[in-house]
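Chain A, query sequence.
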Amino acid sequence: MLAGLSGASAHVGVSPDKTSANSSALLTFAIPHGCEQSSTTKLTITLPSELNDAQPTVNPNWTAAKVTEQFPEPKKLADGSAITKRTSQIVYTAKAPLSPEFRDVLVLSVKLPDAAGKTLYFPTLQTCEAGQVDWSQIPAAGQDAHSLQSPAPSVMVTEAVAGTDVHGAHAAAVLGTAADTASGTAQASAANDDGGQARSWAGLVAGVGGLILGGLALLRSRKSAPAK
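Chain A, predicted structure.
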């Protein structure tokens, strides 16, 4: 995986596992080197205004913190609700400086907006023991991002694909499994009840039969016994 994440690039880049609009995606940020051979100590990722939040994935080599910003007035969401603040940045701090000879990855979970064709930029400030690199350059219209010296990591949102939201699919699967389990349990319970009743009648018949046979055997033994 590490080799596949911008392996030939010296930039801080991002690789999404999904890009479709309205989908829940994992964004993997790769840290390929330090600042002029100085070890990396912090990475500050700024979220685009289209995102209201991001969930940082735990990395044992780093601590993560959210920076929030307050809106001048409540922001209305598509579902009719409103929010008064958003997560504007995710700050990862290295527990031990990351040597430029090694690389690491940091993962954010986000809900991509309903904005097919939109490119989301994530300006990222890389802080090192000596110096820093501000990966925040955004290409002008028609400009090739590869021509920039310190381009901001970016993700282009694509058309929504029906049925690709794993959270919804997982929830449906759980509900379906629960329903099937409940149905199967009810059927098994009914079958067990029927079987139990059948076994009870069989036991009763066997008991009565045993008493009758025992009585006949006792009578035969008395008749065959010699008179005193």
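The radius of gyration is 35 Å. The domain at 13-164 is CATH 2.60.40.2230 (Immunoglobulin-like).
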